[in-house]
Design brief:
Elements: H1 9-19, H2 22-28, H3 34-41, H4 45-73, H5 76-94, H6 99-127, H7 130-144, H8 146-162, H9 165-185, H10 198-209, H11 212-242, H12 247-270, H13 276-296, H14 304-331, H15 337-362, H16 368-399
Helix pairs in contact: 1-6, 1-9, 2-8, 3-4, 4-6, 4-15, 5-6, 5-9, 6-7, 6-15, 7-12, 7-14, 8-12, 11-12, 11-14, 11-15, 11-16, 12-14, 13-14, 13-16, 14-15
Transmembrane segments: 12-32, 52-69, 76-97, 103-124, 136-158, 164-185, 214-239, 245-268, 280-298, 304-322, 343-363, 369-389
Keywords: Membrane, Transmembrane, Transmembrane helix, Transport
Organism: Mycovorax composti
Length: 400
């Protein structure tokens, strides 16, 4: 087994951070192409959204299991094989014109990317300790939030210049470059492997999921990112159908959303030593105030840039919340690094893929009012959930 060399630790850390945004990049890069894909493939808007929802469900469910596989069999070989699968599946999608084929390949991509991201999140727990570990793990969601910044922006220009297939060719190129660099510079990082026995695996899951602070945190993460997904699944149609603008403008709107999450994550990192519930409550109240203003002014303002101001503020605070609880989930159970990472992220992906798909089908989102209503419903659920989270965090603090 090729072990990570000490002299390659620095570049391997950079490569790990470069792969962390991959799940979001594969999700967001082709969002500006949704209307064009529907036209080119002669399918409905719902069918196009299904390619995203299926990827999210696959990615989320996979993470519930790949963490324990990685904790048992290691990180390096799994990561290399998964990058190969991503490369080949991206090329296949780029040259396909059949919806069913694309759906199957997107499902496969979700599984491959879940292995890659879970292994790389566990890398920081494997390699670093103490404050350095806390520093790097708090950076994980900050770096991850660069995907919503870069991907739709790149995707918008690729769509305008070359068409929707260029998005998946770009994803294939990204996978190929990372595969080569990982092969040269990375290596195995796990020091203690848990036996891959059903009893042992179920025991790990039981310990994590039976802890209220951890299990409730999965729902918190899911509701937070549901807001991003509702926006992502709707913005292309708002921009191109309601305002008659191009895919490039969709990319700019997604860029605003991504920057908001990025800066929210940075603020959360700066407040890393503050009590988690205090930060979550601050975020929820701030979002509630913003969405209230968004709804009450919906009949007054009709400009796209006004909508994006509200989106920026709401996504800033949800980025703050997401970073807060995800960092807590990873650092509170270091003995189950990959499993905890997989459960927290995977469970939240399953939740927000289902919740966001339901929201966009119940509420036809086409303007400031309908987008605000979707935010309001999710923020209200989050605020009610925090009543239980507070007790769970207090119990965890007492037991520790």
């Amino acid at each position: 087994m090729k072990q990570l060399k000490k002299e390659h630790e620095g570049i391997s850390t950079i490569l790990a951070f470069a792969l962390i945004p991959l799940s979001g990049f594969a999700m967001d890069v082709y969002i500006p192409s949704f209307p064009h894909m529907a036209t080119d493939l002669q399918i409905s808007e719902s069918d196009i959204k299904l390619t995203l929802s299926l990827y999210l469900v696959s990615y989320g469910i996979s993470q519930l299991f790949v963490g324990s596989i990685s904790d048992s069999f290691g990180r390096y070989k799994i990561n290399i094989i998964s990058l190969m699968v991503l490369l080949l599946s991206s090329l296949a999608i780029a040259f396909s014109s059949d919806l069913n084929t694309i759906l199957v390949l997107r499902f496969i991509q979700g599984i491959a990317i879940s292995f890659i991201v879970v292994c790389k999140r566990a890398f920081f727990v494997d390699v670093f300790t103490g404050e350095k570990r806390k520093h790097y793990t708090s950076l994980v969601t900050v770096v991850w939030s660069t995907a919503p910044i870069v991907a739709p922006f790149v995707g918008g220009y690729l769509q305008e210049s070359f068409g929707w297939r260029a998005n998946f060719l770009f994803l294939a190129l990204y996978a190929f470059i990372m595969l080569v660099l990982e092969w040269i510079y990375s290596g195995e990082t796990i020091t203690h492997r848990h036996p891959f026995k059903l009893k042992s695996v179920l025991s790990m899951y039981r310990q994590l999921l039976s802890a209220p602070d951890f299990s409730l945190g999965i729902i918190v993460l899911g509701l937070c990112y549901s807001m991003v997904m509702v926006f992502g699944m709707s913005i292309a149609f708002i921009v191109e159908h309601e305002y008659h603008l191009t895919a490039v403008h969709t990319g700019y709107c997604a860029l605003v959303s991504g920057l908001a999450m990025f800066f929210g994550g940075l603020l959360s990192k700066k407040h890393v030593n503050k009590p988690a519930f205090q930060k979550l409550q601050l975020s929820a109240v701030s979002q509630f105030i913003v969405v209230a203003i968004m709804l009450t002014t919906a009949t007054v303002f009709h400009q796209l840039y006004i909508i994006m101001i509200f989106v920026f503020l709401i996504h800033f605070w949800l980025g703050y919340s997401y970073n807060t609880y995800f960092t807590y989930s990873l650092t509170s159970r270091p003995q189950y690094a990959a499993t905890a990472s997989g459960l927290a992220s995977g469970g939240s992906y399953v939740i927000f893929s289902i919740v966001s798909y339901i929201v966009v089908h119940v509420i036809t989102i086409k303007d400031q009012l309908t987008l605000g209503l979707s935010y309001f419903s999710l923020i209200l659920c989050l605020q009610l959930l925090l009543l239980f989270v507070r007790k769970a965090l207090q119990l965890r603090a007492y037991s520790a």
